[in-house]
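Hi C.,

You asked whether I'd gotten around to modeling the 261-residue construct. I have! Everything is below, sequence then structure, no commentary in between.
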Amino acid sequence: MNALTLHAANPGPYTGAGNWTYVIPGDAPLLFDAGVGRPEHLDAIAAAVPGGPRRVVVSHAHPDHVSGAPAVASRWPSAVFAKYPWPGEDAGVAWEPIGDGSRLATGEGEIEVMHTPGHAPDHVVLWHAASCTLFGADLLQLGNTVAIPASNGGDLTAYLRSLKRVQALGPVRVLPAHGPTIEDPLALIEHYLAHRHHREVQILSALEGGLSTVDAIVERIYTGLDPRLGPLAKESVLAHLVKLEHEGLARREGPRWRLLT
């Protein structure tokens, strides 16, 4: 798989060093993810594909992936923009809907769109079966776990299902939206699954010990946390609690939670 890696020039506390976007070159170049519209990113796209992308596929509607779409459209008006629909969140450009199993022709052969919800309800990855390469967006990231924003469409049960679906493909390389290329994705998926199980055990223990609020549980299980990442930790704990609620193991009572077993 010959893909060109372009940086979106958007470092920050939530994005780390910033987002990677990818160009699959050929007669009809495809750009995966639109960044945030920084001039440096637009210039990098122009240098990689002088005629501009023919198609732009966005992995999901979080701002660091989608907010650059209007700037890309302004510079290359003939580009077609596509994403999995998220009603109420899809704006900025005219979107062509894509779905699970959609197949896109590229200069590197056919790629398949896979709907992998969890981090966001509209999250998709691109699978290049010929090289066992996955364009992973926010599904996987070396050095960090992936946030599950439960109060804004995140769903831990769906995320774990998405991980296992990708695991079954046997990818040999993942090109993520954040961090370095993942050369042993199956090991990382196993680590993620074990980590989420460990967090669930910690949260169950906290509930059993009488802690009943998200804030109290975060304080118990996240030690030495950068205060800027506090909101993400709260979302993660909430995602686990919602999963436990769906499984009949916990119940929400206003702002408080209690164990049912």
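If it helps when you're writing up: The domain at 195-259 is CATH 1.10.10.10 (Arc Repressor Mutant, subunit A).

Thanks,
B.
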